Amino acid sequence: MDPIFNCQSSIVNRHWSVVYGLKKMRILFITTPDVAIDKGGLYTQIINSKKYLEKLGVEIDLFDMWYPLKYNYDLVHIFRADVSLYDTVKRLKKRGMKIVLSPIFASTHSIPMLKMINLSNELLGRTKVFSLHSFVKKVMEGADTILPNTDEEIKALSLGFGIPRVKFRKIPNGVDESFCFANPDEFKDKYAIENFILYTGWIGSARKNTLNLVRALAKIDKEAIFIGRIIDEGDYTKRCLSLAKKNPKIKILEPLTHDSPLLASAYAACDTFVLPSLYETPGLSALEAALAGAKVVITGRGGTREYFGNMAEYVNPCSVRSIREAIGRSISKKKDKRLREHIRKNFLWERVAQRLYETYLRVV
């Protein structure tokens, strides 16, 4: 390992530009054009990465497609391996730019299935027919370093897409420490409820698996709060909302902004936070809820165990019974501080930004 990475972080922060003769880094962040429309987990990841890297002295610019690039950046950080960014990566490589990629890759396909898909893509490519997966692979091939959130994601991308393992470096998702100090009273006073089951995120989303969650709650004698935007996925969303309306213990609230004190208060006031998605890496809302002191029930797919260990209840998202039983086990337990302290020790944005910073140094 390079000696620089054996140094204490504080020494690296203070002396890297002097000792190693490197100029102050200027980094460009680029992601898909829709990122600020819904301001979901990816938006939160980018804004917090920027905020905490700037505290380390790194200059971060957010790409604006309407303005030509003003600087010869030391490095470009792409967020999401997406077909819409393929041309962007190709043009940046022609300019000789260094690229790191956070793939944000979520798939319910097994590794053998991914291998089969990519083999088919190679055959189709000879006839100039390309699929979405083929562009995901091309974006990853264009990156100098790939930064998945979990070891499970590394395994899926390296084995499923045939990307050399040496290109990967795991950078976990992060959470803001402010959730650790959330006060439950604001939410309790506003809605006269506490120790409830909580879900936050898109409502009526097939990937978030809200229909199976509603089905699981039908036989649980405890109030449940859903906070989020209702999205239109046709019949799936209609069935989800129709079933939720039949359950008097389910209350759907308007979405709250990520920095809303009321959202943090909801995390702190609830008994159990539930995120039974088809896939998560690991779900920023689950990290936030855990840091606020909630017990967590979460999908077992997507490397979530790498974050929550044996301190959460895991579900098979395709099984209503599995979701129901996991919620039952969770609400029967007393809260303890183990998960909260684990998240605080390992996954705050400051720690994540430090690992990003060291990765940038290595690439530059």
Structural summary, described in words:
With 364 residues, this protein is an alpha/beta fold. The chain has two domains: 3-174 and 348-363, Glycogen Phosphorylase B (Rossmann fold, 3-Layer(aba) Sandwich), CATH 3.40.50; 177-346, Rossmann fold (3-Layer(aba) Sandwich), CATH 3.40.50. A six-stranded parallel β-sheet has the order 8-7-6-9-10-11, sandwiched between helices. Strands 2-1-3-4-5 form a five-stranded parallel β-sheet, with helices on both faces. Strand 9 (272-275), helix 12 (284-291) and strand 10 form a beta-alpha-beta unit. The longest helix has 15 residues, at 111-125. It is globular, with a radius of gyration of 21 Å. The relative contact order is 0.13. The protein is built from 16 helices and eleven strands. 43% of the residues lie in helices and 12% in strands.
Please tell me how large the radius of gyration is.
21 Å
Number of helices: 16
Helix coverage percent: 40-55%
The residue-averaged pLDDT reads 90
Counting helices, strands and paired strands, the structural category is alpha/beta
Main pleated-sheet profile:
6 strands, parallel
Q: Give the termini separation.
A: 16 Å
The coarse overall form would be: globular
Largest sheet strand order:
8-7-6-9-10-11
Question: What is the CATH T-level topology of the largest domain?
Answer: Rossmann fold
Supply the CATH architecture of the largest domain: 3-Layer(aba) Sandwich
CATH class bucket of the largest domain: Alpha Beta
Give the CATH H-level superfamily of the largest domain: Glycogen Phosphorylase B
Q: Which H/E pattern describes the elements?
A: HEHHEEHEHHEHHEHEHEHEHEHEHHH
Low-confidence stretches: 1-22
Number of strands: 11
